[in-house]
Amino acid sequence: MEKEEKVIYSRQVVEFAASANEYCKYLEGTKDINGIEILKVMQRLLSFIYLRASLLPLLDPLLEEPNEKTVTEFDWTRMHDNLLTKIGNNDPFPVIVSVGDPSDGLYTGSISEYLTDIYQDLKDFVVSYKSGQEDVMNDAVWEVLMNFEEFWGKKLLNVLSAIHTVLYSEADGNVENDQKDDDETV
User: Fold this and answer.
1) Statement: 2-185 belongs to CATH 1.10.10.10
2) Neighbours of 132 (CB within 10 A)
3) Nearest partner of 91 among 40, 141, 1, 159, judged by Cα
4) Dist CA 68 CA 4 (whole Å)
5) Alpha-carbon torsion 172, 181, 157, 4, what sign?
6) Would you list the domain boundaries of the chain?
7) For the segment 139-172, what is each residue's pLDDT rounded down to a tens digit?
């Protein structure tokens, strides 16, 4: 058990925590940043976070109850709406779900929704990890890894592909152009 407690301070965990914190801090400070700049930063941060999450150690939970969730519905909606406003017409993207998945097929995803969902899991992790209580920190690592494997890791890959398409599309309809068009109609 002592070995598991020390794992929460390992390089892999600390570097993941730092990158998760950076992601959250960046998104929380995007009020005055345009959509294309947000997507450029997200492209880099998401790639790094995926790598760091894939290196997290597998731990067993220590607590009977799950860690407290800190991102409220209000927080989620405010973050989502801010991103949606910034990303504009480039927000929706096609998502192909793999065969065998209960929701297999093609559906429309949302860059702002996916970024906000990832934010929610990472912010909950960061707050729990910063608590300094080793059992809470342990369970935060366990939970964020489980959620990465089941939920937000897949969302991260899908949204990264969508961001790539927006940033490197040869079409003229990028985020900056959409924002200029919106400004002209106001």
Assistant:
1) no
2) 7
3) 159
4) 21
5) positive
6) 2-185
7) 999 999 999 999 999 999 999 999 999 999 865 4
Write out the two tokens for 104: 């297999």
Distance CA 75, CA 36 (A): 23
51-94 per-position pLDDT tens digit: 999 999 999 999 999 999 999 999 999 999 999 999 999 999 99
CB 103 within 8 A of CB 97: yes
d(CA 141, CA 139): 5
The SS3 of residue 95 is strand
106 forms beta bridges with 96
Counts of helices then strands in the chain (DSSP H, E): 8, 2
CA-CA distance, 154 to 148, in Å (whole number)?
A: 8
Single-letter amino acid code for the residue at 175: V
Side chain identity at 45, as an amino acid letter?
L
